[in-house]
């Protein structure tokens, strides 16, 4: 079931309180002031407890985390205020692209606009995305989670020193989707017939938006700030990262192995993220998340398995020694 809000009209392709800032003629007008129970700070209006939209998003988010839901505290739900001219222009552009995709794919509701979650690296990343849009640092494609399955995006969120993570709830123009495998080498649709990618038609857990459409087909609408008591396999804080306990291989060796199968643009991006990690610009789990999105889990597992298998093979002298054939050099 798709996330809908009480004020949503069935024919409305984009649902956001900041839509009131764009008139039917396309003229940008000032949005109305927030109600007393909502507090605006920076790019966002904070929704208070008891607000219908706040409670709906909070409930949906907690429920979508499954067994981790009871361990999760939602600190705040904030709405993109769209209060400046640039934000209004982005909103108007999103509407225009939704209409264009709908016409291109047969009219009606064929723009296929959905809500979806996107993981962020922290408060600064949230502000950068809302003010500047998505950029090179976000990779050759955006991977978002359906609104009823936020776990993957929540796990990928960077954690601040206060233990708070931030996930964006976005409106996404999917249009006509194609199946995209985890180990895809593509940075763009397979042909002009498709607008986005999914990992499954029947029960998608990933929405893929390509880099050339990430700033026209994705509109950040809300940000959910939350704490979770534990995420297995993730850093607990910026100060005390967990040590890897799963199979691993030296990162330069991994890059070398991936360079044999991935396009140069992907390798350049992975190398950049690795350098950012060494320069302490990003955390280890952020590096891993980026590499997983670019290379795909299947390819990474195969590369690590091949590395470990080669490490287990005895050397020539070791083999001869075991057979009693090695000679001692005097």
From TrEMBL:
Domain RST: start-end pairs: 242-313
UniProt-listed InterPro entries: Poly(ADP-ribose)pol_cat_dom, RCD1/SRO1-5, RST
Keyword annotations from UniProtKB, A to Z: Developmental protein, Nucleus, Stress response
Entry's localization field: Nucleus
Protein name: Inactive poly [ADP-ribose] polymerase SRO5
One Pfam family it belongs to: RST
A GO cellular component entry from the record: nucleus
Gene Ontology terms, MF aspect: NAD+ poly-ADP-ribosyltransferase activity
Lineage of producing organism: Eukaryota, Viridiplantae, Streptophyta, Embryophyta, Tracheophyta
Domain of life: Eukaryota
Domain PARP catalytic: start-end pairs: 31-246
PROSITE patterns, per the entry: PARP_CATALYTIC, RST
Predominant place of localization: nucleus
